Amino acid sequence: MAVLDKKAIEAIIPHRDPFLLIDEVLELEPGKRVVAKKYLKEDEFWFKGHFPGYPIQPGVLTMEMLAQAGAVCVLSMPEFKGRTAFFAGIDKARFHRPVRPGDTLILEVELLKLRTSIGVGKATATVDGKKAAVGEITFAIGPKQDN
């Protein structure tokens, strides 16, 4: 059962369709750890051109999904409410298996460091319990947004 649905996710991070790339949050410990889920539908816009006849999830989008999950983890902390988390770096990224339409990605991010406005998270994406991608994501927390 989801802890956060899409509407609740949208209340935390500023991403919107077509670039809100997580469907639900399954587990959340603000400032520590998050587990989110993405159902990869056949009609996702990127599958049409990557690659026709053999659609594969672009690795960069898997990293973006992990970053969005990590942003939920950080921005759900009261002191960061209403702010934006920006990508500042990706290290040690590895892609272990192709991700295809119909797969369900489980996106887990554990925060390793969190300072005033910079953080680092250990990110892992799995499909059916098997590693699909891993990396260390660095993010910067921007100023409060006026919406």
Task: Sum this structure up briefly.
The protein is mainly beta and 147 residues long. The protein has helices spanning 6-10, 59-75; strands at 24-29, 33-39, 85-95, 104-114, 118-127, 130-141. This is 3-hydroxyacyl-[acyl-carrier-protein] dehydratase.
Which terms would index this structure?
39% strand; single chain; Thiol Ester Dehydrase, Chain A; mainly beta; 6-stranded antiparallel sheet; 147 residues; 6 strands
How would you characterize the overall build of this protein?
The protein has 147 residues and is mainly beta. It has a 6-stranded antiparallel sheet with strand order 1-2-4-5-6-3, with helices on one face. It is globular and about 45 Å long. It has helices at 6-10, 59-75, and strands spanning 24-29, 33-39, 85-95, 104-114, 118-127, 130-141. It has a single domain, classed as Roll (Thiol Ester Dehydrase, Chain A). The protein is built from 2 helices and 6 strands. 15% of the residues lie in helices and 39% in strands. This is 3-hydroxyacyl-[acyl-carrier-protein] dehydratase. Pfam families: FabA.
